[in-house]
Amino acid sequence: MVENAREKKRSLFQLIGDVPTLVRELVMGEINLLKAELIAKLKILGVGAGLLLGAVIIVFFFVGVLLTAAILALSLVLPGWLAALIVAFVLLVAIAILAWLGIREVKKAMPPMPEKTISSVKLDINAIKGIGKRAKS
User: Fold this and answer.
1) Whole-model pTM above 0.90?
2) How far apart are CA 10 and CA 22, in angstroms?
3) From CA 137, how far away is CA 60, in angstroms rounded?
């Protein structure tokens, strides 16, 4: 029974010997958290950028339709240019919706800082310094 108690108690040198392993595990955990957080934010940025790209592509169609409307208006073919203006208005509404959705998605990922990782590293540093408490996971 005395031997079991001695096996559970570890010497100071054994505890100090474990420090590099514990620090390495802590650093690897923080790096993994950083990667996961950045990947999530980059995915959101990608969706927002894709929506904005869609809006830009539709702008090119919008310009073409407006040019067609101007040509038809100058030629005084009333049904033609009126139809072209209606199509241009519909495209303008689509541009506005896609641009609004894209901007909203980009704002979700801003700022692109790994906030959870930074907070966790600060807690780790404070725990190592003996300031504050480290939350148990």
Assistant:
1) no
2) 16
3) 52
